[in-house]
Design brief:
By secondary structure, this protein is mainly beta. The chain contains 2 helices and 12 strands; from the N terminus they run βββαββββββββαβ. The strands form 3 sheets. It has a 7-stranded mixed beta sheet with strand order 6-7-8-9-4-3-10. A 3-stranded antiparallel beta sheet has the order 1-2-5, with no helix packed on it. A hairpin with a 5-residue loop joins β7 and β8.
Length: about 170
């Protein structure tokens, strides 16, 4: 198995290579991660800080909260890393920044109501069942109802976001 994971930002100004298997790959639901990525959840791969090198450009870092630094591309703004004083030997890379993200499937969730990056869970608990439809065919037209009603999310109280008939 190839133990090198290459990645970078959207514009190509930053490139990096992580070597070896990650310590863990997990979904994080904390408010800090949501705000940094603009997404309801982020997936991180944890590598030892000594296990990666920046091969092009540089990762710009921002002190997002006491003891936590968020890394991004200073040119295009792509979300890249998170480092914390609580885990001083690790760098957490956003899985989407890797060229072959599918090689890094998440195996756990950062548990709800636990501390992550200095913040705690602050959104309603959602039961996520991955019932995503297969990839869409290029050029084929799909109804909005078939696209919106396919996420498989369960809302508090067991209600589904699925549309009737989808």
């Amino acid at each position: 198995m190839n133990d090198q994971f290459e990645g970078g930002c959207l514009c190509g100004a930053v490139r990096f290579v992580a070597t070896g298997q990650p310590k863990w790959v997990a979904w994080c639901h904390c408010q800090s991660c949501r705000k940094h990525s603009g997404a309801p959840v982020s997936v991180f791969a944890a590598f030892e800080r000594t296990a990666y090198v920046v091969t092009k450009g540089g990762i710009t870092k921002f002190n997002s909260s006491p003891g936590t630094r968020r890394g991004f591309c200073g040119k295009c703004g792509s979300t890249l890393t998170c480092e914390s004083d609580r885990l001083p030997t690790e760098t957490h890379f956003h899985v989407g920044a890797f060229d072959q993200a599918a090689r890094l499937p998440p195996t756990r969730h950062i548990p709800p109501r636990s501390a992550c990056c200095g913040y705690t869970w602050a959104t309603p608990k959602l039961e996520i069942r991955d019932q995503s439809p297969p990839a869409r065919e290029p050029g084929k037209v799909y109804s909005a109802a078939s696209l919106i009603g396919s996420t498989g999310l369960r809302l508090p109280g067991g209600r589904s976001n699925r549309l009737a008939g989808s």
